[in-house]
Amino acid sequence: MIAKPGVRGKHSCFTRGLISMTTRVLGLKLSLAAGAMLAGVLVINSTVNYRRAAARVEENHTRRQLTQHAMQLEAAVRKEKSAAGLAALIDDFHKDRAGRIAWIRIFDREGKLVTSAGESGGLSFPLDKVEEKLRARATMSEVRRRGDERILVEAQPLRGAPPIEVDDPRRTLLLEMGLFVEVDDGVLWPLRWNLLVTYLGGGALLGALALIGLRFRAYANGRSLEQQVEIASQVQQDLFPKAFRLPANLDMAASSVAAWQIGGDFYDAFDIPGGRSAVVLGDVSGKGIPAALLMGVIHGAVRSSRWAEGEGHAGSLAMHLNRLLYEHSSGERYATMFWCDFDPDTRELEYVNAGHCPPMLISNQDSKPRVARLREGGPVLGLLPHARYGRGTVRLGPDDCLVLYSDGIEDAVNDAGAEFGQDRLERILVANAGLAAEEIRSAVFEAVRDFAGAARAVDDLTLVVVKPLPVGAGMPVAA
Fold first, then answer.
1. Residue 315: its H or E element
2. What's the rounded Cα separation, in Å, for the pair 165 and 147?
3. If we measure between CA atoms, which residue out of 194, 200, 206, 204 comes closest to residue 37?
4. Do 338 and 466 contact (CB within 8 A), yes or no?
5. Pairing outcome for strands 348-354 and 377-378
6. CA 109, CA 129: separation in Å to the nearest integer?
7. Residues 320-355: tens digit of each pLDDT
8. What is the DSSP track for 427-468?
Protein backbone atom coordinates (compact mmCIF):
# COMPACT_ATOMS: atom_id res chain seq x y z
CA MET A 1 0.00 0.00 0.00
CA ILE A 2 1.25 3.41 -0.91
CA ALA A 3 0.72 6.04 1.74
CA LYS A 4 -0.91 9.26 0.76
CA PRO A 5 1.52 12.11 0.23
CA GLY A 6 2.25 13.94 3.49
CA VAL A 7 0.86 11.27 5.89
CA ARG A 8 4.29 9.97 6.85
CA GLY A 9 5.52 13.51 7.26
CA LYS A 10 2.62 14.43 9.51
CA HIS A 11 3.11 11.29 11.59
CA SER A 12 6.81 12.10 11.92
CA CYS A 13 6.06 15.69 12.96
CA PHE A 14 3.49 14.47 15.52
CA THR A 15 6.01 12.00 16.95
CA ARG A 16 8.69 14.67 17.16
CA GLY A 17 6.20 17.06 18.76
CA LEU A 18 5.14 14.41 21.31
CA ILE A 19 8.75 13.66 22.16
CA SER A 20 9.53 17.37 22.36
CA MET A 21 6.52 17.94 24.67
CA THR A 22 7.56 15.02 26.90
CA THR A 23 11.10 16.38 27.02
CA ARG A 24 9.84 19.83 27.90
CA VAL A 25 7.60 18.47 30.67
CA LEU A 26 10.47 16.42 32.07
CA GLY A 27 12.80 19.39 31.77
CA LEU A 28 10.19 21.57 33.47
CA LYS A 29 9.86 19.15 36.38
CA LEU A 30 13.62 18.94 36.79
CA SER A 31 13.91 22.72 36.58
CA LEU A 32 11.13 23.17 39.12
CA ALA A 33 12.79 20.74 41.49
CA ALA A 34 16.17 22.41 41.05
CA GLY A 35 14.67 25.89 41.46
CA ALA A 36 12.75 24.86 44.58
CA MET A 37 15.88 23.33 46.10
CA LEU A 38 17.93 26.43 45.28
CA ALA A 39 15.25 28.75 46.69
CA GLY A 40 15.02 26.63 49.83
CA VAL A 41 18.78 26.59 50.31
CA LEU A 42 19.04 30.34 49.82
CA VAL A 43 16.15 31.10 52.20
CA ILE A 44 17.60 28.78 54.85
CA ASN A 45 21.03 30.28 54.35
CA SER A 46 19.57 33.79 54.71
CA THR A 47 17.90 32.75 57.97
CA VAL A 48 21.13 31.30 59.34
CA ASN A 49 23.07 34.42 58.34
CA TYR A 50 20.41 36.63 59.93
CA ARG A 51 20.60 34.75 63.21
CA ARG A 52 24.37 34.98 63.28
CA ALA A 53 24.38 38.65 62.34
CA ALA A 54 21.60 39.44 64.86
CA ALA A 55 23.54 37.69 67.62
CA ARG A 56 26.65 39.74 66.78
CA VAL A 57 24.64 42.98 66.71
CA GLU A 58 23.01 42.16 70.05
CA GLU A 59 26.32 41.28 71.65
CA ASN A 60 28.07 44.38 70.30
CA HIS A 61 25.19 46.60 71.41
CA THR A 62 25.20 45.01 74.89
CA ARG A 63 28.99 45.32 75.11
CA ARG A 64 28.74 49.05 74.41
CA GLN A 65 26.07 49.38 77.10
CA LEU A 66 28.22 47.45 79.58
CA THR A 67 31.14 49.78 78.85
CA GLN A 68 28.92 52.79 79.53
CA HIS A 69 27.68 51.28 82.81
CA ALA A 70 31.25 50.50 83.86
CA MET A 71 32.39 54.06 83.12
CA GLN A 72 29.45 55.49 85.08
CA LEU A 73 30.17 53.19 88.00
CA GLU A 74 33.86 54.06 87.99
CA ALA A 75 33.02 57.78 88.01
CA ALA A 76 30.69 57.25 90.99
CA VAL A 77 33.32 55.20 92.83
CA ARG A 78 35.87 58.00 92.52
CA LYS A 79 33.52 60.25 94.52
CA GLU A 80 33.16 57.68 97.29
CA LYS A 81 35.59 58.39 100.15
CA SER A 82 35.05 55.38 102.39
CA ALA A 83 35.18 51.64 101.94
CA ALA A 84 32.00 51.37 104.01
CA GLY A 85 30.02 53.32 101.43
CA LEU A 86 31.27 51.22 98.51
CA ALA A 87 28.78 48.39 99.16
CA ALA A 88 25.84 50.79 99.40
CA LEU A 89 26.92 52.55 96.20
CA ILE A 90 27.14 49.25 94.29
CA ASP A 91 23.75 48.13 95.59
CA ASP A 92 22.07 51.41 94.61
CA PHE A 93 23.72 51.33 91.19
CA HIS A 94 22.35 47.82 90.60
CA LYS A 95 18.83 48.69 91.79
CA ASP A 96 18.68 51.69 89.47
CA ARG A 97 19.34 49.36 86.53
CA ALA A 98 17.27 46.39 87.59
CA GLY A 99 16.35 44.11 84.73
CA ARG A 100 19.42 45.08 82.71
CA ILE A 101 22.33 44.25 85.03
CA ALA A 102 22.35 40.69 86.36
CA TRP A 103 25.09 41.30 88.91
CA ILE A 104 27.96 43.56 89.97
CA ARG A 105 30.87 42.02 91.85
CA ILE A 106 34.09 43.64 93.05
CA PHE A 107 37.16 41.53 93.86
CA ASP A 108 40.65 42.26 95.05
CA ARG A 109 43.53 41.20 92.85
CA GLU A 110 43.74 37.90 94.72
CA GLY A 111 40.24 37.01 93.55
CA LYS A 112 38.57 37.54 96.93
CA LEU A 113 35.09 39.06 96.89
CA VAL A 114 34.99 42.60 98.35
CA THR A 115 31.33 43.46 97.74
CA SER A 116 28.55 42.55 95.31
CA ALA A 117 25.01 43.37 94.23
CA GLY A 118 22.50 41.19 92.43
CA GLU A 119 23.30 37.52 91.96
CA SER A 120 26.00 36.28 94.32
CA GLY A 121 28.97 34.18 93.29
CA GLY A 122 32.71 34.11 92.82
CA LEU A 123 34.91 35.35 89.99
CA SER A 124 33.50 33.95 86.73
CA PHE A 125 36.91 33.59 85.07
CA PRO A 126 40.17 31.98 86.16
CA LEU A 127 42.23 34.63 87.92
CA ASP A 128 45.36 33.93 85.85
CA LYS A 129 43.38 34.47 82.62
CA VAL A 130 42.05 37.78 83.92
CA GLU A 131 45.56 38.89 84.90
CA GLU A 132 46.85 37.95 81.45
CA LYS A 133 44.16 40.06 79.79
CA LEU A 134 44.80 43.01 82.09
CA ARG A 135 48.53 42.90 81.37
CA ALA A 136 47.63 43.13 77.69
CA ARG A 137 45.43 46.16 78.50
CA ALA A 138 42.30 44.24 77.52
CA THR A 139 39.15 43.11 79.30
CA MET A 140 37.99 39.56 79.89
CA SER A 141 34.53 39.03 78.44
CA GLU A 142 32.30 36.14 77.50
CA VAL A 143 28.64 35.53 76.60
CA ARG A 144 27.11 32.79 78.72
CA ARG A 145 23.78 31.05 78.39
CA ARG A 146 21.43 30.43 81.29
CA GLY A 147 18.31 28.74 80.01
CA ASP A 148 16.79 31.03 77.38
CA GLU A 149 18.82 34.00 78.65
CA ARG A 150 22.20 35.21 77.45
CA ILE A 151 24.42 37.19 79.80
CA LEU A 152 27.50 39.15 78.77
CA VAL A 153 30.05 38.83 81.58
CA GLU A 154 33.07 41.14 81.60
CA ALA A 155 35.91 41.63 84.08
CA GLN A 156 38.00 44.80 84.03
CA PRO A 157 40.01 46.97 86.45
CA LEU A 158 38.10 49.32 88.75
CA ARG A 159 40.24 52.37 89.33
CA GLY A 160 39.62 55.04 91.93
CA ALA A 161 37.99 52.75 94.55
CA PRO A 162 38.36 53.74 98.25
CA PRO A 163 41.05 51.91 100.32
CA ILE A 164 40.08 48.48 101.64
CA GLU A 165 41.75 45.90 103.83
CA VAL A 166 43.99 44.06 101.37
CA ASP A 167 47.67 43.21 101.35
CA ASP A 168 48.46 46.11 99.06
CA PRO A 169 45.76 48.83 99.09
CA ARG A 170 47.36 50.52 96.09
CA ARG A 171 46.47 47.63 93.80
CA THR A 172 43.54 48.14 91.46
CA LEU A 173 40.33 46.29 92.27
CA LEU A 174 38.57 44.04 89.75
CA LEU A 175 35.05 44.86 88.54
CA GLU A 176 32.93 42.02 87.17
CA MET A 177 29.59 42.91 85.66
CA GLY A 178 26.95 40.66 84.07
CA LEU A 179 24.56 42.29 81.59
CA PHE A 180 21.55 40.63 79.97
CA VAL A 181 21.96 40.52 76.16
CA GLU A 182 18.94 42.47 74.99
CA VAL A 183 18.37 45.14 72.34
CA ASP A 184 15.45 47.23 71.17
CA ASP A 185 13.61 46.06 68.06
CA GLY A 186 14.78 49.17 66.22
CA VAL A 187 18.42 48.06 66.40
CA LEU A 188 17.67 44.82 64.55
CA TRP A 189 15.11 46.28 62.12
CA PRO A 190 17.58 46.75 59.19
CA LEU A 191 18.56 43.08 59.45
CA ARG A 192 14.94 41.96 59.74
CA TRP A 193 13.95 44.11 56.77
CA ASN A 194 16.58 42.47 54.55
CA LEU A 195 15.46 39.04 55.76
CA LEU A 196 11.82 39.95 55.07
CA VAL A 197 12.65 41.10 51.53
CA THR A 198 14.52 37.84 50.92
CA TYR A 199 11.57 35.84 52.26
CA LEU A 200 9.16 37.76 50.04
CA GLY A 201 11.35 37.20 47.00
CA GLY A 202 11.89 33.53 47.80
CA GLY A 203 8.19 33.02 48.56
CA ALA A 204 7.11 34.75 45.37
CA LEU A 205 9.54 32.70 43.30
CA LEU A 206 8.59 29.43 45.01
CA GLY A 207 4.96 30.33 44.39
CA ALA A 208 5.73 30.90 40.72
CA LEU A 209 7.46 27.53 40.48
CA ALA A 210 4.57 25.73 42.19
CA LEU A 211 2.01 27.42 39.95
CA ILE A 212 3.96 26.48 36.83
CA GLY A 213 4.00 22.85 37.98
CA LEU A 214 0.26 22.80 38.70
CA ARG A 215 -0.83 24.72 35.62
CA PHE A 216 1.77 23.98 32.98
CA ARG A 217 -0.52 24.60 30.01
CA ALA A 218 -1.58 27.99 31.38
CA TYR A 219 2.04 28.84 32.09
CA ALA A 220 2.98 27.79 28.57
CA ASN A 221 0.96 30.79 27.45
CA GLY A 222 3.15 32.91 29.72
CA ARG A 223 0.48 35.04 31.35
CA SER A 224 0.46 33.54 34.82
CA LEU A 225 4.23 33.31 34.90
CA GLU A 226 4.55 36.99 34.00
CA GLN A 227 2.28 37.96 36.89
CA GLN A 228 4.38 36.07 39.41
CA VAL A 229 7.61 37.36 37.97
CA GLU A 230 6.27 40.90 38.20
CA ILE A 231 5.94 40.37 41.97
CA ALA A 232 9.54 39.18 42.17
CA SER A 233 10.61 42.12 40.00
CA GLN A 234 8.85 44.55 42.34
CA VAL A 235 10.54 42.94 45.34
CA GLN A 236 13.85 43.25 43.52
CA GLN A 237 13.18 46.92 42.78
CA ASP A 238 12.54 47.46 46.49
CA LEU A 239 16.14 46.41 47.14
CA PHE A 240 17.46 49.36 45.15
CA PRO A 241 17.98 52.55 47.20
CA LYS A 242 15.29 55.20 47.04
CA ALA A 243 16.23 58.72 45.92
CA PHE A 244 15.46 60.31 49.30
CA ARG A 245 17.67 57.77 51.10
CA LEU A 246 20.82 58.31 49.07
CA PRO A 247 23.95 59.57 50.87
CA ALA A 248 23.71 63.30 51.45
CA ASN A 249 27.32 64.07 50.51
CA LEU A 250 27.12 62.53 47.02
CA ASP A 251 25.48 63.65 43.80
CA MET A 252 24.36 60.24 42.55
CA ALA A 253 22.24 58.88 39.72
CA ALA A 254 21.71 55.22 38.90
CA SER A 255 19.59 52.91 36.75
CA SER A 256 19.34 49.16 36.27
CA VAL A 257 17.47 47.69 33.32
CA ALA A 258 17.05 43.90 33.39
CA ALA A 259 17.40 41.97 30.14
CA TRP A 260 14.58 39.75 31.43
CA GLN A 261 11.80 40.65 33.88
CA ILE A 262 14.20 40.23 36.78
CA GLY A 263 17.97 40.37 36.62
CA GLY A 264 21.16 39.61 38.45
CA ASP A 265 22.56 43.16 38.62
CA PHE A 266 22.14 45.24 41.75
CA TYR A 267 23.45 48.42 43.29
CA ASP A 268 23.09 50.11 46.64
CA ALA A 269 24.20 53.31 48.37
CA PHE A 270 23.90 54.16 52.04
CA ASP A 271 25.53 56.06 54.87
CA ILE A 272 27.79 54.16 57.25
CA PRO A 273 28.95 55.23 60.72
CA GLY A 274 31.78 57.72 60.81
CA GLY A 275 30.20 60.12 58.34
CA ARG A 276 31.19 57.99 55.35
CA SER A 277 29.09 56.91 52.38
CA ALA A 278 29.10 53.46 50.79
CA VAL A 279 28.35 52.51 47.17
CA VAL A 280 28.04 48.90 45.97
CA LEU A 281 27.47 47.42 42.51
CA GLY A 282 27.30 43.70 41.74
CA ASP A 283 26.57 41.38 38.85
CA VAL A 284 25.48 37.76 39.45
CA SER A 285 26.22 35.30 36.67
CA GLY A 286 23.22 34.25 34.62
CA LYS A 287 19.79 35.78 34.41
CA GLY A 288 16.30 35.31 35.75
CA ILE A 289 15.12 33.63 38.92
CA PRO A 290 18.34 31.91 40.10
CA ALA A 291 20.37 35.07 39.57
CA ALA A 292 17.74 37.21 41.33
CA LEU A 293 17.63 34.85 44.33
CA LEU A 294 21.39 34.88 44.65
CA MET A 295 21.38 38.65 44.24
CA GLY A 296 18.94 38.99 47.15
CA VAL A 297 21.14 36.87 49.40
CA ILE A 298 24.28 38.85 48.51
CA HIS A 299 22.49 42.16 48.99
CA GLY A 300 21.24 41.08 52.41
CA ALA A 301 24.73 39.90 53.39
CA VAL A 302 26.24 43.25 52.39
CA ARG A 303 23.63 45.26 54.30
CA SER A 304 23.95 43.10 57.45
CA SER A 305 27.76 42.95 57.40
CA ARG A 306 30.12 44.58 59.89
CA TRP A 307 31.32 46.83 57.07
CA ALA A 308 27.82 48.31 56.68
CA GLU A 309 27.83 48.91 60.45
CA GLY A 310 31.07 50.87 60.22
CA GLU A 311 33.24 48.01 61.50
CA GLY A 312 35.71 45.92 59.53
CA HIS A 313 36.45 46.68 55.90
CA ALA A 314 35.30 45.69 52.44
CA GLY A 315 38.23 43.30 51.98
CA SER A 316 37.06 41.07 54.84
CA LEU A 317 33.48 41.25 53.53
CA ALA A 318 34.71 40.11 50.11
CA MET A 319 36.40 37.05 51.62
CA HIS A 320 33.25 36.23 53.63
CA LEU A 321 30.97 36.48 50.58
CA ASN A 322 33.40 34.49 48.48
CA ARG A 323 33.35 31.63 50.99
CA LEU A 324 29.55 31.89 51.32
CA LEU A 325 28.97 31.60 47.57
CA TYR A 326 31.56 28.87 47.17
CA GLU A 327 29.98 26.70 49.87
CA HIS A 328 26.30 27.30 49.14
CA SER A 329 26.03 27.56 45.36
CA SER A 330 27.09 25.46 42.42
CA GLY A 331 30.32 26.14 40.55
CA GLU A 332 28.25 27.67 37.74
CA ARG A 333 27.11 30.50 39.99
CA TYR A 334 29.44 33.33 40.81
CA ALA A 335 29.26 37.10 41.17
CA THR A 336 31.38 40.15 40.46
CA MET A 337 31.19 43.10 42.83
CA PHE A 338 32.66 46.51 43.50
CA TRP A 339 32.57 48.06 46.99
CA CYS A 340 33.70 51.53 47.93
CA ASP A 341 33.26 53.95 50.78
CA PHE A 342 33.89 57.69 50.60
CA ASP A 343 35.07 59.91 53.45
CA PRO A 344 33.89 63.49 52.73
CA ASP A 345 36.38 64.98 55.22
CA THR A 346 39.53 63.46 53.70
CA ARG A 347 37.89 62.94 50.24
CA GLU A 348 39.47 59.49 50.16
CA LEU A 349 37.68 56.64 48.40
CA GLU A 350 38.60 53.16 49.62
CA TYR A 351 37.48 50.32 47.36
CA VAL A 352 37.65 46.61 46.58
CA ASN A 353 37.05 45.24 43.07
CA ALA A 354 36.07 41.55 42.99
CA GLY A 355 36.41 40.75 39.29
CA HIS A 356 34.02 43.52 38.23
CA CYS A 357 34.33 45.86 35.25
CA PRO A 358 36.86 48.43 36.53
CA PRO A 359 34.91 51.65 37.24
CA MET A 360 36.09 54.80 35.48
CA LEU A 361 37.29 57.77 37.53
CA ILE A 362 37.24 60.90 35.34
CA SER A 363 39.37 63.71 36.75
CA ASN A 364 39.32 67.23 35.33
CA GLN A 365 42.80 68.57 36.02
CA ASP A 366 43.94 71.64 34.12
CA SER A 367 40.87 71.24 31.88
CA LYS A 368 42.30 67.93 30.62
CA PRO A 369 40.04 65.01 31.54
CA ARG A 370 41.96 61.95 32.68
CA VAL A 371 40.46 58.49 33.05
CA ALA A 372 41.69 56.06 35.70
CA ARG A 373 40.52 52.49 36.20
CA LEU A 374 39.88 51.15 39.72
CA ARG A 375 41.17 47.59 39.49
CA GLU A 376 42.58 46.80 42.95
CA GLY A 377 40.89 43.82 44.63
CA GLY A 378 40.78 40.17 43.63
CA PRO A 379 38.94 37.49 41.60
CA VAL A 380 35.20 36.97 41.18
CA LEU A 381 33.21 35.70 44.17
CA GLY A 382 32.31 32.04 44.49
CA LEU A 383 34.94 30.23 42.41
CA LEU A 384 38.10 30.12 44.56
CA PRO A 385 37.53 29.17 48.22
CA HIS A 386 40.67 30.85 49.57
CA ALA A 387 40.81 33.97 47.41
CA ARG A 388 42.33 37.08 48.95
CA TYR A 389 41.24 40.65 48.25
CA GLY A 390 43.30 43.80 48.43
CA ARG A 391 42.06 47.34 48.92
CA GLY A 392 42.73 50.39 46.81
CA THR A 393 42.57 54.05 47.79
CA VAL A 394 42.15 57.13 45.63
CA ARG A 395 41.51 60.77 46.47
CA LEU A 396 38.59 62.46 44.70
CA GLY A 397 38.91 66.00 43.50
CA PRO A 398 36.01 68.48 43.68
CA ASP A 399 35.10 67.96 40.00
CA ASP A 400 35.86 64.24 39.73
CA CYS A 401 33.27 61.78 38.49
CA LEU A 402 33.15 58.07 39.36
CA VAL A 403 31.17 55.78 37.04
CA LEU A 404 30.30 52.18 37.97
CA TYR A 405 28.66 49.92 35.41
CA SER A 406 27.93 46.30 34.55
CA ASP A 407 29.29 44.53 31.50
CA GLY A 408 25.86 44.76 29.84
CA ILE A 409 26.71 48.37 28.90
CA GLU A 410 29.89 47.46 27.02
CA ASP A 411 28.39 44.27 25.56
CA ALA A 412 25.26 45.92 24.10
CA VAL A 413 25.02 45.00 20.40
CA ASN A 414 23.25 46.52 17.42
CA ASP A 415 21.51 44.83 14.49
CA ALA A 416 24.86 44.36 12.75
CA GLY A 417 26.30 42.44 15.72
CA ALA A 418 28.78 45.19 16.70
CA GLU A 419 29.36 45.87 20.39
CA PHE A 420 28.98 49.23 22.09
CA GLY A 421 32.47 48.78 23.59
CA GLN A 422 34.60 50.32 26.29
CA ASP A 423 36.15 53.02 24.12
CA ARG A 424 32.78 54.44 23.06
CA LEU A 425 31.61 54.50 26.69
CA GLU A 426 34.79 56.30 27.77
CA ARG A 427 34.39 58.96 25.08
CA ILE A 428 30.81 59.67 26.16
CA LEU A 429 31.80 59.95 29.82
CA VAL A 430 34.74 62.27 29.10
CA ALA A 431 32.55 64.50 26.93
CA ASN A 432 29.89 64.80 29.65
CA ALA A 433 32.04 64.63 32.81
CA GLY A 434 31.31 68.24 33.73
CA LEU A 435 27.54 67.69 33.89
CA ALA A 436 25.48 66.62 36.91
CA ALA A 437 25.23 62.91 37.73
CA GLU A 438 21.68 62.58 36.39
CA GLU A 439 22.62 64.21 33.08
CA ILE A 440 25.61 61.86 32.67
CA ARG A 441 23.42 58.83 33.37
CA SER A 442 20.84 59.98 30.82
CA ALA A 443 23.53 60.64 28.20
CA VAL A 444 24.97 57.11 28.53
CA PHE A 445 21.61 55.32 28.39
CA GLU A 446 20.48 57.43 25.44
CA ALA A 447 23.70 56.57 23.59
CA VAL A 448 23.24 52.84 24.31
CA ARG A 449 19.61 52.92 23.11
CA ASP A 450 20.54 54.79 19.93
CA PHE A 451 23.36 52.32 19.25
CA ALA A 452 21.37 49.14 19.89
CA GLY A 453 18.29 50.28 18.01
CA ALA A 454 15.74 47.45 17.79
CA ALA A 455 18.22 44.80 18.94
CA ARG A 456 17.18 43.16 22.20
CA ALA A 457 19.49 43.51 25.18
CA VAL A 458 21.38 40.29 25.94
CA ASP A 459 22.45 41.30 29.45
CA ASP A 460 21.31 43.54 32.28
CA LEU A 461 22.26 47.22 31.94
CA THR A 462 23.30 48.92 35.19
CA LEU A 463 24.99 52.30 35.56
CA VAL A 464 25.86 54.28 38.71
CA VAL A 465 27.28 57.82 38.46
CA VAL A 466 28.78 59.36 41.60
CA LYS A 467 30.13 62.89 42.08
CA PRO A 468 31.30 64.17 45.48
CA LEU A 469 29.53 67.25 46.76
CA PRO A 470 31.32 70.05 48.63
CA VAL A 471 31.33 69.61 52.40
CA GLY A 472 28.08 70.94 53.85
CA ALA A 473 26.31 71.01 50.48
CA GLY A 474 24.19 67.89 50.93
CA MET A 475 21.39 66.98 48.59
CA PRO A 476 17.89 68.02 49.70
CA VAL A 477 15.87 65.26 51.33
CA ALA A 478 12.46 64.56 49.90
CA ALA A 479 9.49 64.83 52.24
1. helix 314-328
2. 38
3. 206
4. no
5. parallel
6. 12
7. 888 888 887 766 778 999 989 899 989 999 999 999
8. HHHHHHTTS-HHHHHHHHHHHHHHHHTTPPPSS-EEEEEEEE
